[in-house]
């Protein structure tokens, strides 16, 4: 079991995280910078010379607050870092307001498996220690076309079965407006954690998880960006003045307790996320 005081073994979301050496893909229309050493995240996207993300040099250097990073092997908060699995209770290090947030991958360096002018493939061996007691591995592919960015993310269990949820966390520069039509919302309790049952969506501002199967459209600086995914859970965080995060993920926040999904040894879970500019 992971110890209660294991927070020092996992990244601090509020601590600065340098991007390190960047890889570049795309062309003159769509330019993408990728930071393998900083959690395998996209550091910046430029479409027609307009920056799309809050970047590492925008005055918000905290690890949690820039770029677009993969979240795995869980996404969002796990309440108090605790969950039941395989007949016992597990304790993950708590690193944000008493909870465990956004998995472990956003702080770890990813290995570059392939890189060409239009795509990057990265891999990550998940820890088997206090940060994550099950091991396993992850892969992602990021591909840039003339007007789109396609991302595929997967997690594979190792020798042990394990719970899993994955997703993406893009810090989009503040939109003028978004078109978002979810079918339901997970209410948050006094601890700010998602609960069940879901209810009809409520007005923002949001830091909430929704059931959503429709494209999300972002309007900013005269551009129209369409976000789509095979994920049916989307978190929207729009409480900051400089950014809105629109996050597709395979399960809700606190998924290990609310809607657990289990990978048997050697089994994998894969999802895709696409950004497309009109």
UniProtKB/TrEMBL annotation:
It holds the Pfam family Aldose_epim. This is Aldose epimerase. Signal peptide: none annotated. InterPro entries: Aldose_1/G6P_1-epimerase, Gal_mutarotase_sf_dom, GH-type_carb-bd. It comes from the Bacteria.
């Amino acid at each position: 079991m992971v110890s209660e005081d294991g927070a020092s073994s996992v990244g601090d979301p509020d601590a600065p995280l340098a991007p390190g050496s960047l890889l570049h893909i795309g062309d003159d229309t769509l330019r993408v910078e990728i930071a393998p050493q900083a959690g395998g995240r996209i550091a910046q996207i430029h479409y027609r010379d307009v920056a799309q993300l809050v970047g590492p040099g925008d005055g918000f250097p905290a690890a949690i607050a820039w770029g677009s990073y993969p979240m795995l092997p869980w996404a969002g908060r796990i309440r108090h870092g605790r969950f039941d699995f395989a007949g016992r209770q597990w304790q993950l290090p708590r690193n944000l307001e008493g909870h465990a947030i956004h998995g472990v991958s956003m702080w770890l360096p990813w290995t570059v498996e392939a890189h060409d002018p239009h795509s990057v493939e990265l891999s990550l061996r998940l820890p088997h220690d206090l940060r994550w007691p099950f091991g396993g591995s992850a892969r992602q592919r990021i591909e840039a076309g003339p007007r789109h960015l396609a991302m595929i993310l997967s997690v594979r269990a190792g020798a042990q079965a394990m719970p899993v949820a994955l997703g993406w966390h893009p810090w989009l520069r503040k939109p003028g407006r978004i078109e978002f039509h979810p079918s339901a919302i997970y209410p948050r309790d006094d601890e700010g954690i998602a609960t069940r049952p879901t209810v009809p969506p409520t007005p923002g501002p949001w830091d909430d998880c929704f059931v959503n199967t429709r494209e999300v459209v972002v309007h900013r600086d005269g551009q129209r960006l369409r976000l789509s995914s095979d994920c049916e859970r989307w978190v929207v965080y729009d409480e900051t003045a400089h950014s809105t995060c629109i996050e597709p993920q395979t399960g809700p926040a606190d998924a290990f307790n609310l809607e657990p999904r289990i990978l048997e040894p050697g089994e994998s879970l894969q999802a895709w996320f696409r950004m497309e500019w009109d």
